[in-house]
Automatic annotation (TrEMBL):
GO terms for molecular function: DNA binding. InterPro entries: DNA-bd_dom_sf. This is AP2 domain-containing protein.
């Protein structure tokens, strides 16, 4: 004999109001409650998820928060300025430094850098410190330059939105003779 389920009828959990228990149970035996969200949607949620605060809406709260975050971010050609500015060390990188990967079979370090959804190969290095230095130089050339140029462009665009429409920001990376190069500036769009 299990314990008697708690009565959650009429209680609010975030945007959800528990209406009545259903016959359904989760893997721990927790009762699913039929709930109504403030947006009008109805959803069944386990009592455990309601009480622990894991479900606070039908999903509309997540959508609303993601839209607000998207409005605060500045995306340029699929690159988020804020992500570049606040880069952190990745937990899944064994070398301990982003973009520097230890290759066990060759006992060397491979250095890559990503920008606009593409990966650019920087080089192979015997020495870890050289590999990290190469990555930092690539970040300075690509990421930091992009941030600085975007900030200048954004300031002009804020002052004169029409100027921003007529002079879109251009920032492209390419490899020429094994070297990373950046093409940056504002292109003037000619109207006839």
């Amino acid at each position: 004999m299990g314990r008697r389920p708690r009565d959650l009828s009429g209680q609010k959990f975030g945007l959800l109001t528990a209406m009545y228990p259903t016959e359904r149970r989760d893997h721990r035996g927790s009762v699913y409650w039929h709930c109504v969200c403030e947006c009008g949607n109805e959803i069944d949620v386990s009592a455990g998820a309601l009480l622990d605060g894991n479900n606070r809406s039908c999903g509309c709260l997540k959508d609303k928060n993601q839209k607000q975050i998207a409005q605060r971010r500045h995306l340029v050609d699929g690159t988020c300025v804020e992500v570049l500015e606040k880069r952190k060390k990745r937990r899944d990188n064994e070398s301990g430094f982003r973009g520097v990967f230890y290759l066990k079979n060759s006992n060397r370090y491979r250095v890559d850098i990503g920008f606009k959804g593409k990966r650019y190969y920087v080089g192979l290095f015997e020495d870890y410190d050289e590999a990290v230095q190469a990555r930092l130089e690539a970040e300075n050339l690509i990421h930091n330059s992009f941030i600085n140029i975007w900030k200048e462009w954004n300031q002009k665009e804020q002052e004169d939105p029409q100027w921003g429409k007529e002079h879109p920001l251009v920032f492209n990376v390419r490899k020429v003779n094994g070297e990373l190069q950046v093409e940056a500036g504002c292109q003037e769009i000619k109207t006839s």
